Amino acid sequence: MRVPILQWLPKYSSNDFAADLIAGVTIGITVIPQALAYATIGGLPPEYGLYSAYVGCFVYVVLGSTRVVTIGPTALLGLLTHDGALLMGPQAAVLLAFLTGCISLLFGILNFGFLIEFIAAPVIAGFTTAAALTIGTTQVKSLLGLKFEADGFVETWKAVFEHIDETKTWDAVMGFSSVAALLLLRLLDKVKIGIEDDRTTFQRFINGTFWLISVSRNAIVIIIGCTIATALITPGDDDTLFEITGNITSGLPSIQPPSFNIEYGNQTFSFVEICQNLGSALFVTPLIAILESMAIAKSFAKGQRIDASQEMIAIGTSNLLGSFVFSFPVSGSFSRTAVNNASGVRTALGGIYTGILVLLAITILTPYFFFIPKSCLAAVIITAVIFMVEIHLVKLVWNSRKLDLIPLFVTFSFCLFLSLEIGIIIGTAVNLAMLLYATARPRIKILTFQNTSATDAHIHYLHITPDRSVVFTAIDYFMSTVRKASVLYPGVPVVIDLSYVSIADFSTAYGFDNLAEDLHKRGHPLVITKAHPRVLTILEGVRGTKLHVHRDGIELDRLLLGNDS
């Protein structure tokens, strides 16, 4: 395990400090309203979002492999936490963070980073898009001020339409106004004054102000919404104009290990029962946490090598330590990392200032969060997740390889209509099955030749070339194809060209030897040509007397003419 901070900290300068301070404070302003909102996605009290927003900041400074990634609560992990928290209470979310940390950390220490590469881009796109639609759907209730219980994409929309006449006007106005404001403020960053290479100091200041307002849009909308609600709501009035966040526990949480036996409601859950109830979320949550962080790190790497195992260690440690202060599972955040990068962060030390700002919010600002309208928080979530929908990728996949749309739509459908955990498992299984099928069915070119290029000898033979490696999954199919081709040309030598075969295994060697014996009985000499050295070594380990290997054109002629001993 490396400690990356030891590589860059000795070179830290005052210029780095100023840039990191600006970026860190900017991220802090961004993460506080997001943390409150993402906790509600997970079915948790809002303060749990704040508890989840600072430990990762400090950990990533020491263990993170890039300067820009910011660790904290995300919409995806909030959604994966929801079912467990709903059934067994907030402690289940905390324990899930602990287990996510243990699994991620173990995978990182064992250098299992390569396993992430088995999750294909179409599967990730299907998962992310379905998750975004599911998350957005869960917030429609709060956006309209409705009260009902429903699970899943279809059930939630069904309940929305059944209760649509119960919409609270003030909540709907506040919610849709917040959505509009957030989308407009997001565009403010695109407004530029002056010509890029010839701007005055005042123009640069105005552009910088526009950018700061744009990246702080969540905090701005929350503050305005809270101010309006405070002015309009009469204390003690049971029929308030808005559904508000309510009391948020103030102060830092006590440091204690997560509970492995949970009492919630009238039930007590043992550790085994907790694991059973969490189900596939136990494995999918660390997988998604790692995937999110890795995808973000690669997006902003700018040529820098990303150590997948080191990222696993950073994510694992963040979750593991975070669980001791009531954090739910955390990972890298794409939106906050983009802001961090645009803020000009120089090193990972920017996370220190973000973490300090979150701690100040927990200890000082929580009483002021009481009047935050839930419709404002819903607007923050909806405007964040709509940009996770990857519709554009469908066209790219269609233009590139249409077959890859199968795992994309399978993942999307199962995630949306069944569950995220099951969807990504099924999608990955379908994608791997397609990959295995491709290895099991190589394309085989069959030609007939009259002579070789090395001599003028007139030799009639069958030339067979597989277009990829022939391993255990493909050997039976390959042997069957060769046998069928040999039947059409009785007594003709068979030459297998292994130019495109870079990998072989025992099944390959054993199959080729059996094929040589079989063809020999029917009068077909079998010759292997152009084998790579490592493939040749494997074949030599099993090769019998009926399988011939040639190393040049003249030797091939001799073998085909029957002059080879």
Automatic annotation (TrEMBL):
Is Cell wall biogenesis/degradation included in the keywords of this UniProt record? no
PROSITE patterns recorded:
STAS
- GO cellular component: a single term: plasma membrane
Location(s), subcellular:
Membrane
Q: Please give the Gene Ontology molecular function terms for this protein.
A: sulfate transmembrane transporter activity
- Spell out the Pfam families in the cross-references: STAS (PF01740), Sulfate_transp (PF00916)
Extract one GO BP annotation from the record: sulfate transmembrane transport
Which ranges carry the STAS domain? Answer: 494-540
**CDD domains xref list:** STAS_SulP_like_sulfate_transporter (cd07042)
Q: Which residues form a coiled coil?
A: none
Q: How does it sit in the membrane?
A: Multi-pass membrane protein
Spell out the SUPFAM superfamilies in the cross-references: SpoIIaa-like
Which keywords belong to this entry? Membrane, Transmembrane, Transmembrane helix
Which branch of life, at top level? Answer: Eukaryota
Instruction: Give the signal peptide as a residue range, or say none if absent.
Output: none
State which residue ranges cross the membrane.
Answer: 21-41, 53-80, 92-116, 209-233, 278-300, 312-330, 350-370, 377-398, 410-437
Q: Which Gene3D superfamilies match?
A: STAS domain (3.30.750.24)
InterPro entries given in the database record: SLC26A/SulP_dom, SLC26A/SulP_fam, STAS_dom, STAS_dom_sf
PANTHER family membership: SULFATE TRANSPORTER (PTHR11814)
> What is this protein called in UniProt?
STAS domain-containing protein
Q: Which organism is it from?
A: Daphnia pulex (Water flea)
Taxonomic lineage from the root: Eukaryota, Metazoa, Ecdysozoa, Arthropoda, Crustacea
